[in-house]
Structure prediction request, 838 residues.
Amino acid sequence: MVEVTLWGSLGAAAGGQSKLDIEAKDIRELFRKLSEQYPAFEPLIDRGIAVAIDGTIYRDTWSKELPPGAEIFLLPRLAGG
Amino acid sequence: MNFDPRYSGRSFTSVGTRPIRPDGVDKVTGRARYGADFNMAGQLVGRILRSPHAHAIIRKIDTSKAEKLAGVKAVITAKDLPDLTDGDAAMYDILDNSMARTKALYDGHAVAAVAAIDARTARQALKLIEVDYEVLPHVTDVDEAMKHSAPLINDAIFTEGLEEKPVKPSNVTKRTQYGHGDVHQGFGEADFVVERSFKTEQTHQGYIEPHACVASVNPDGTADLWVCTQGHFVYRQHCAQLLGLEASKLRVTSSEIGGGFGGKTHVWAEPVALALSRKAGRPVKLVMTRDEVFRASGPTSATSIDVKIGAKKDGTITAAEATLRYSCGPYAGMWAEIGAMTAFACYKLENVKTVGYEVLVNRPKTAAYRAPSAPMAAFAVESAVDELAKEIGIDPVDFRIKNAAQEGTRASYGPVYGPIGIGPTLEAVKNHPHMKAPLGTNQGRGMACGFWFNFGGQTCTDLNIGMDGSVSLAVGTVDVGGSRASLSLVAAEELGIDYAHVKAIVADTSSLGYNDMTDGSRGTFSSSMATISAARNAIKILRERAAQMWDISVDDVAWEKGHAVAKGEKHGNLGKLSLKEIAAESGKTGGPIAGHSELVADGAGVSFATHICDIEVDPETGSTRVLRYTVVQDAGKAVHPTYVEGQYQGGAAQGIGWALNEEYIYGKDGRLQNPGFLDYRIPVCSDLPMIDTQILEIPNPNHPYGVRGVGETSIVPPLAAIANAVSNAVGVRMSHIPMSPPRILAALEAERERFSR
Prediction:
């Protein structure tokens, strides 16, 4: 079980919650369960969500493991110049 | 990802040296081919008709007269670019921006286009197109657009992110909020509170090369596009989707690029060129004029920002709050949200809150501009930080050092930082000789910090070893700042050969797997990771071939300094085989030797910089001159230090222009008044001092060589550093960017009036 914090505009997709407990071993499973439990996440995941694991931001490595006790933040996918 | 990206702490032979860039001679002699330099037999000239109105319903477009003009081969409108975006809102906005559907949303919005045998005929044809507009009220100012009385730009927009679902449409597309702690309580603990409002005007990236392409659609459904872009794979995806083509049948080749800085990260006129070519059955070349680049490509946001920061007498910040309003042009964006994330990222804050509002205006579609949104937020925050330091009576550098984020700090945008460089850049600035240099009359010094995220992303490279032992490296990230040289250094380092034997190219979309574009400071970070991986894969094969040549087990062959070395006592007399010797035998040992890599480069590592600026202000005219400028920034590991310094200097130069001169000026009619480099003045060499740089190298733990991105952060501190310098020079807080002579004079005059009352 990992605790996931939702930041910025993402909280609205989970009915206004800012923290969720989800059983997931990696980013792929986290996204799948988020979509199952909160369908509003599906289009957001399609557009791209960044996952910060212990401070390091991952945008596309869905195989990245979520270590037990890690700090997990979901952030909007950002534009760069 | 079958590749271990962790930092290994190795020593380097090639990486960190400064060879001449492989594309340098062609660029300075004019041989390099940019977007407009490509030509095809039988090509037509494309031209776009643009709206003269800031906001108007397009009732009817009559193209019949233009079509009848001799030499005109195709005329298109939105009907020729039907909506194939299938509910993808972001792509729909790009489509509508490429060619207006029902409404012209800004001065310069494309409404029709022609392809003709020459430019003169094309221009004549544009004049023959009759557009029946119903002109609507417009709004171009970000604060005005938020008022309830403002003209609505899109009546289907209801503000997202509000606690209660709005019942009326609005120009505010979204509200976002970041932060932690309790700012109300934090301000209650403060001995000093500074609360100020700031504005920044809209600026353009100012790339010298305009948008340019040649499009050729063939009768069999295949197509080619030669184009100036930051991401040819992304342009392929966009164009294929908008034109209904199969991506693999659209081959996109990127030209050399004369600057992008975020402005060439999505398509603008390219779908129009392809649609014209499809209709005409001939290749079409489309090059934007400078007027079109200003009016109809993507500048950055104009902003309006309120900041409040409180601190104790000992200099500890107790609370920080900002409200950020960013213009998006007429389409939804997330520019204020990025500003809200980055605003206080440099600081260790117990109580912080930022709120962002994305605001529609009748201006061109906002695009990324080098660390998009962060410079404006940093301007507001760093100005307030300086003022707060002054009120407390503490040195502004010491104040920042006391409150700087560090490893373990919770960032204002959420996560806890790993190893970061804000503290070291501040310490370096504190000890820099620049900070101790004397100042003269009417001169001021300012400093400021800046933050940017940096990204990685999808990356693919091919490394091929020729039979003569030379190496060609094909990458898919467009070289905007010297990355071919840097990636050649990385390939040479990993293989253990001389840099001179490596030649890097940017491959077209049919020759290499998908690559994300060169944005987010990712080019060298991502492609160097893929190059290291590709080289290591090639080394595996080189070892196998050496084992064959020696007739020993590959397990007994190691790779050291460009040579296969047989390990073990029984192989003691075998000596070494160089890469060149193994390559020469490759035809007889299994064929070509190559290394391939496809990976997602993630964990780019956040970046910080601190800048120092000395400026002189003429109190009579308000004119300014930057006397000295120093950039201190963490690079992780500088692969090619000269190009890292070039990025630092380039960002600072753009920031200086933004801070002092550059500004989109709209008339009451909603038309852009200064769409050219004479009236929109970017800094030239004679405006700038030599910009000094200091590279710090705090390794990124998520890259084998410790590399971080370096391209963007350097534009984040300048607005604030220069504003602090001007404010210190004239004794008046400057709160509106650009600080052009009339604004400085007005600020001085207002101050005089305040004292005379």
About this structure: The mean pLDDT of chain A is 88. The interface with chain B takes residues 5, 7-9, 12, 47, 52, 54-61, 63-64, 71, 73, 75-76, 78-81 of chain A (CB under 8 Å). Chain A has one domain: 2-76. The longest helix of chain A spans residues 27-37.
